[in-house]
């Protein structure tokens, strides 16, 4: 009788155990030295097969995506640094990190989550980042077929 209320689980050889919660299949994924939450779409019975294929490739594809993501994070950082440099009243009050090139953003950014999501009607990847220069938002790097589509300035974990 209590089996009706048990959280369904799914075991994937590459991704490990996934549990269905909040309409998504959830687990963890390793990106190099870190492990972060992973969310995938699917039915109540199992994750979407295409979403599973995409998720399985993320760990190996991620290093190739990092340069493009770093460039986008650096572009996002630039207006904050400019505001501080010009003494604008809206400039961040906290200590803003000094970043002079894109590869330096990684010292001030951390991955919060990875999700396979529908982007413009097709499955893609969203990677949520917390950054030191914008503490109010989680930034979302959105990719499809290995190509960075955009850096969304405010996303929520799925």
Largest sheet: 8 strands, mixed
Shape: elongated
Q: How helical, in percent, are the residues? A: 10-25%
| Mean pLDDT figure | 92
Query: What is the number of helical segments per DSSP (H or I, 4+ residues)?
Result: 1
User: Which spans have pLDDT < 50 for at least 5 consecutive residues?
Assistant: none
- In N-to-C order, the SSE pattern is EEEEHEEEE
Radius of gyration: 18 Å
Question: How would you write the strand order of the largest sheet?
Answer: 1-2-3-4-5-6-7-8
Q: Quote the distance from N terminus to C terminus.
A: 30 Å
How many domains would you count in the coordinates? 1
Share in β-strands: 35-45%
**Number of E-type strands:** 8
What structural class results from the helix and strand content? Answer: alpha+beta
Tell me about this structure.
The structure is a single chain. The chain is of the alpha+beta class and 158 residues long. The radius of gyration is 18 Å and the shape is elongated. The chain has one helix at residues 49-86; strands at 9-12, 16-21, 24-31, 34-40, 109-119, 122-131, 134-144, 147-152. It is built from 1 helix and 8 strands; from the N terminus they run ββββαββββ. Strands 1-2-3-4-5-6-7-8 form an 8-stranded mixed β-sheet, covered by helices on one side. Strand 7 and strand 8 form a beta hairpin.
Gist?
With 158 residues, the chain is of the alpha+beta class. The chain has one helix spanning 49-86, and strands at residues 9-12, 16-21, 24-31, 34-40, 109-119, 122-131, 134-144, 147-152.
Keywords:
158 residues; 8-stranded mixed β-sheet; alpha+beta; 40% strand
